[in-house]
Design goal:
The protein is α+β, with helices and mostly antiparallel strands and 411 residues long. The chain has two domains: 118 residues; 265 residues, Anthranilate synthase. Helices cover 27% and strands 29% of the residues. The chain is built from eight helices and 19 strands. It has an eleven-stranded antiparallel beta sheet with strand order 1-7-6-3-2-9-10-18-19-8-15, sandwiched between helices. Strands 5-4-16-17-11-12-14-13 form an eight-stranded antiparallel beta sheet. Helix 3 packs across helix 8. The longest helix is centred in the middle third of the chain and has 20 residues. The chain is globular and about 65 Å long. Bound molecules: ligand ISJ. The site of the ligand C=C(O[C@@H]1C=C(C(=O)O)C=C[C@H]1O)C(=O)O has 17 residues, from strand 8, strand 12 and strand 19. Keywords: Isomerase.
Length: 411
Amino acid sequence: MPTPEPRLLPWPAAAAGLDAPARLRHLVAGALRTGRPLAAWREPGAAHPQLLVARSLEAAYTGLPPALDAGAPAGFAFFPFRDSDHYPALFLPADVRYDPARPDAVAVAPAARELLPNIAAWLALPTPAELAWHHSPQPAPHAATEAEYTRLVRRGVAAIEAKEVLKVVSSRAARRPLPPGFDPLAAFDLLGAKYPQAFVSLVSVPGVGTWLGATPEVLAEVTADGHFRTVALAATQPATAAASPQTAIWRQKEIEEQALVARYIVNCFKQLRLREYHETGPRTVVAGQLLHLRTDFEVDLRAVPSPASLGTDMLRLLHPTSAVGGMPKGAALEFLRRHEGYDRAYYSGFLGPVNVAAPGVARLFVNLRCLQVRAHEAILYAGTGLTVDSDPEREWQETEMKLQTVAAVLG
Ligand SMILES: C=C(O[C@@H]1C=C(C(=O)O)C=C[C@H]1O)C(=O)O
């Protein structure tokens, strides 16, 4: 059965003078004012951001990862590292959409038809000077001191030495004051301009909170031309005049750490009895001021026995990957649950649009280099992959460097 087309709602006379970014802000203001979840995102290399508003919070709750096939609903996935009551797995249905490349109309999906008069009413109001961003009612997570974090790293190394785990990715939260007049949408634009190759996002959900990020890591992509893609991203060093992607030198520890992540992905393919995949790399890639090692994996879906379910099956096997949890998965996650000392919430979960650009097109990213916006402060998150040779002081420095990516919007 063909999906009914969305209704295109033209902008009212009141919004006639607004340019495309001002129209996006106007729609965001309306969504926030009426307590609706929203997601704005800018895909790597894209000229414009996209905006999606869900008709209600209830419509966004989900227990399961999204299905990556053409027949599944369209929306924006926002998944925590670990599912919990405070930070639920969300899939924001694509009820109301705005694409600044097509600035003349707002698209309203059939499921949200009854909202049409309501939306027409917010569009006709002036944009408020201050937007009412949603904040999490949860207390701020514990922010580890340097002494606490280096202790966690030493524990991780001891667990590797004791062969409890092969690799574990420890992480921490850091609290920073918000600069006066902090504007999450302006920060979103700034992240987009600063990191053209990142997936830049701004998600705000009632009762859950507001998150901003600029991640370099693809989790699972299904392309319009029928390919599945994922990456093994790991190892970190600062990009400097001496260390560019062409000249960077990697230590044995870093090469092995990234190889473990690549091996993990190959094991996922094996579990699905998939033998036909292309593997490219590892090569050095730039993410903001950092360099990482990345191997790209690609599967031609025409060549696999069950193309419709491969993306969904891989997503379920991949999350959380060994780039953010560790290996073996169960033991590494148990180590983190016992020792990490805070709730990662949506950091190192995943996010992105599914079936929004077109049916069967999905782009999910690991939620790294992100922050949570609270009333007066931002919570920033970063982690580091540990191996047997990890030096606690260096790992702390590495989290400091990773925090800089989003700290750039805090002035
Ligand atoms: C965990 C993070 O990053 C991950 C860990 C990396 C590492 O251990 O070197 C590198 C890239 C990411 O896969 C983070 O940015 O918080």
